Amino acid sequence: MSNNTCRWGILGSAGIARKNWQSIRNSGNGTLVGVASRSIERAQSYIDECQSHVSYPEPPRAFGSYEEMVESPDIDALYIPLPTGLRKQWAIRAAQAGKHVLCEKPCGSDVAELEEILEACKEAGVQFMDGVMFMHSRRLDKIREILEDGDSIGRIRRINTLFSFCAPEEFLTGDIRMNSDLEPLGALGDLGWYNLRFTLWVMNYEMPKAVTGRLLNASGREDSPSLVPTEFSGELLFEGDISAGFYCSFLTEHQQLATISGTKGNLRLDDFVLPYFGNELAFTLNNAEFSQEVCDFHMKRFERRIAVEEYSDSHPTAQETNLFRNFGDLVIGGTPDPVWGDIALKTQKIMMACVESARLGGEPVQVL
Amino acid sequence: MSNNTCRWGILGSAGIARKNWQSIRNSGNGTLVGVASRSIERAQSYIDECQSHVSYPEPPRAFGSYEEMVESPDIDALYIPLPTGLRKQWAIRAAQAGKHVLCEKPCGSDVAELEEILEACKEAGVQFMDGVMFMHSRRLDKIREILEDGDSIGRIRRINTLFSFCAPEEFLTGDIRMNSDLEPLGALGDLGWYNLRFTLWVMNYEMPKAVTGRLLNASGREDSPSLVPTEFSGELLFEGDISAGFYCSFLTEHQQLATISGTKGNLRLDDFVLPYFGNELAFTLNNAEFSQEVCDFHMKRFERRIAVEEYSDSHPTAQETNLFRNFGDLVIGGTPDPVWGDIALKTQKIMMACVESARLGGEPVQVL
């Protein structure tokens, strides 16, 4: 760190990382030192392309190897969008080199991998966080306020999430997410991580007693050792008969629907992961009223739309910006917050229990 | 039948039947001859109350026993809102007496019961239909048009339905739906019937290969021989990896959400069972667009609201009115249409397979 600025490196030149090029610039407490790829030309062309779109006063440097970036003394924190199959190795090396770790999801291929990463971060005294952007949206604060007001939703009974996109044929046959060595959890890891995290957030990180999972579809790239989940559904069962259903898929067109239903009403978002572009983030609160007057039965809509300001010219993707700002604050503060690792580990544990349930034909599996 | 009018009797004075008092009057091809209760006073006070609200030119007669109504020569069709535990007996007696049968749901306590009812109707040459009102909404025609246009939704991949209301304490401890002799299927029979029927309708009555079910909560009135399902979730698995999740509950406040998701978009209704009161019935069609320009990732909302005219002063509850008109047309036409019995039987078979899956701890059960 220098002058209260978190100095970032992007470890890998995955397409998803482009989104965060400007998030770091907009964060207010960070700067981007460089981008690493296994080829310096690739890193440079990535930088040139992004720089021409959103420029840093001092252009980030190209690193021709991951090692070089991990060892670089002028970098404080690494954003690691590498494939899951490569992530553990580099996250641990980064931590051991004293770098703070912002890790894309799913953090590990299994629970043990993530535990190893977290142990390495703990030992090195560096911050760990996963890249779930919606966790940093101000909309969540407003939703929590509603969930806790006692009247709008009442006691929570059911959470339901649907998150999907319809991958083109070239994705299903060529994308790295379709190789089981690189992304063994497929759509469950890539999309289901958000379903599970949102559910956990709603439940204030209470763990489910048991989960069920169902592999609805799997497929794989020609070079894939085994099939990769492309569509998955499951259910989380909490104390007090609270339950949560989820569905994620690479085969169904864009949807990101979340419903939180309680004893007094329900709350709905149709863009819970990647918000629709605009000047605000909204959700609806629904408290339908049923009335009967002798023979007249009326169901009356009572819907309120609640919004928070979000987008602006200087914060075109505010939740991502907040993610990098929040991470930077922790780095600058000097005391890692273990809660982010705990939340990621809970997410991973639930996910792996869902996978185990699917393997067993859908029977309930306890989350240990 | 006389003068192309279907002459109705209401067998039982359940609260739900009040809704249909005016549906018969508004149907245009029917009239209400009488209401039967086990006490003639109760039948008369029911009639007086409804008649003061929505009056028939000639007031319906009170029948002091179900037998009397079943044998009455001036009645063509019976609407049977009796509890499920009593329904088979009276539906069969009605059919044997030559009465057409409009039966509330769930039609039977199990598949065999409904098969017996349908056999009796077939032998007697009378019409059978269950009382699922939304099947008669003109909104469904519009939804079918969208589902089949090839572009709006594409190929269907996932159907999701949530239907619930939050029953007051006196319901859970006192309502007949909380006695397992009368309503052994509880919330699954009362609400889940709609979830399953809507799913079947979307799938053009194709049967699922297998289903799973989970009993999330059960409770019972003091006099109930066993517990009654109060909350239930399940999943239907169709050919081609098409799947449908559903949730129904007496413990979660009003919601009636249906989502049909395909390879090109999704369609949503938030009042799929009992439409919100108003002059039209609507649904939304969602085709979000994702775009990336170098570092800018935008999810753009593209939502269309599609509505059909529904309510008017003379048709305050149009789908119910349509139900009675359509049934009356079949009675007047003189040739029973077996498709309505087939659809009810499919619904019952899927429901019982869900119950069986729940009994087995959630494992997939084939639908026979």
Pick out its properties.
homodimer; 368 residues; alpha/beta; Rossmann fold; Dihydrodipicolinate Reductase, domain 2; 2 domains; nine-stranded mixed β-sheet; six-stranded parallel β-sheet; 17 strands; 29% strand
How would you describe the overall organization of this protein?
The structure is a homodimer of 368-residue chains. In chain A, helix 1 (15-26) crosses helix 9 and helix 8 crosses helix 10 (339-359). Helix content of chain A is 35%, strand content 29%. The two termini of chain A are 38 Å apart. The first copy, chain A, is an alpha/beta fold and 368 residues long. Chain A folds into 2 domains: 6-134 and 319-337, NAD(P)-binding Rossmann-like Domain (Rossmann fold, 3-Layer(aba) Sandwich), CATH 3.40.50; 137-315 and 347-366, Dihydrodipicolinate Reductase, domain 2 (2-Layer Sandwich). The model of chain A has no long low-confidence stretch (mean pLDDT 94). Chain A has 10 helices and 17 strands. In chain A, strands 16-13-12-11-7-10-9-8-17 form a 9-stranded mixed β-sheet. In chain A, strand 4 (77-80), helix 4 and strand 5 (100-103) form a beta-alpha-beta unit. The first copy, chain A, is globular and about 75 Å long. The interface between A and B is large, with 72 and 72 residues.
